[in-house]
Amino acid sequence: MGMNTLLKKTEDSFSSIANILLIIGAGGAFNGILKGSGLSESLALILSNLDMHPILLAWLVAIILHATVAMMGATAIVAPLMPLYPDISPEIITLAIGSGAIGCTIVTDSLFWLVKQYCNATLSETFRFYSVATFIASFVALGGTFMLSFVI
Hints:
By secondary structure, the chain is mainly α. It has seven helices and no strands. It starts with a helix and ends with a helix.
């Protein structure tokens, strides 16, 4: 294989994942902004006044932030709340964030585009099947996290 062919194949490969890498990078930057600006602590203070179970709170924050790389953003917001709930294991909160992060997979999620591309699905099919499946999986995982929290 010549150098021109190798360069062409490399460029073709990177162009298909460039958007995905940009979305992931933007999520990391968003997490840094949340922490650096003090917004995560402010949101944590506001959320600490809610009368809500911390597992459900972690899940809700992750599912609401899903469009902006949920796990990183939810971690930045929920982490300052952890000292308020010493009886809840950090591992359980991590599972709650993960279960919220998998729900509601939409076009702003890099995994949505990976699934669409590799399954050769249309946008409509990906919404109908994949987005619905991840939403259901998120609720099942939330239920499992609650059950596990009684054990751990």
